[in-house]
Amino acid sequence: MSAFASAQAPRDVVMVRPHRFAPNPETIADNLFQPRTPVTPTAALAEAAYREVTAMVDTLTGAGIRVHLFEDEEAGRPDSVFPNNWFTTHPDGRVALYPMYSPNRRTERRRDVIDALRSTFRITGVHDYSVLEDEELYLEGTGSMVLDHDHRVAYVARSFRSHDRAVAMVCQDLGYRPVVFTTVDGRGAPIYHTNVMMAVGPKVALVALDSIPDAGERHAVAASLATTGHTVVELASSQLDEFAGNTIELTGADGPVLVLSSRALASLTPQQVEVITAHTRLLPIDVPTIELAGGSVRCMIAGIHLAPRQAPPGAPRQAARPVPQPA
């Protein structure tokens, strides 16, 4: 393992390359990061998304991050490019599967992905919370929860996608302290996923504290981040619209990198960049087509926080195989 490796900034990630990408019509009501005018699915749109994911995999791999890439050739799964919503992995070997708000996202949960991880990493148990869908209790993975694995804290913005009862159950089972709060975006609406308004790395956190209207809850978030020793970079509502909060810190061959979209980087001020780069290198990636679905690079990455099984030195980990181009 690299000397730079951190439980909070994994070296291995899962990504899904979609062949039939399209913005999801079932999520547009509460995902205000999607364009208000629905985007018509076309073959050209799917091909552009396919190319963006391929280029992102190449960029991450070039930085020394191991990408476990899975193909999705199925129709009817427009958001499959965002695997972080349906499962999480944890340093103690556990995997959790989550209840999804939109019915057409529930088939994104794939046993073959978990089985592939099991062949490479030590998995000690699987918690399946998808049965909570029957009670209309939703919690969409690391979209709903921004997890600080080092300090066992789960930051959660309430929404249709993040129900208090589901949060309490998952945090109790997995051993995280929940910090739950209400948000309001620049339009006065709740923010649908926590990971578009905050990101927590090993040492630096990006967070839109002004989007938390309740002073007590806002103080609780700030105090928790201070207690865990994080340097806080405060984001403005306008920067959230550019996906500046939808970032993830990973461990590359030469140390930590903060993965963010080119659009997000363009929205950061020089002062914010200076603070961030004191702790980690910026790795911008172009994903304008994917961002039409209301998520950015953080949503495209499911971090692997599991210990590897014993493998020969230099054994490849990237799950890559020749595949057909998108239909």
Automatic annotation (TrEMBL):
InterPro entries: Amdntrnsf_FN0238. Gene3D superfamilies: L-arginine/glycine Amidinotransferase, Chain A (3.75.10.10). SUPFAM superfamilies: Pentein. Transmembrane segments: none annotated. It holds the Pfam family DDAH_eukar. This is Amidinotransferase. It comes from Nocardioides aromaticivorans. The lineage of its organism: Bacteria, Bacillati, Actinomycetota, Actinomycetes, Propionibacteriales.
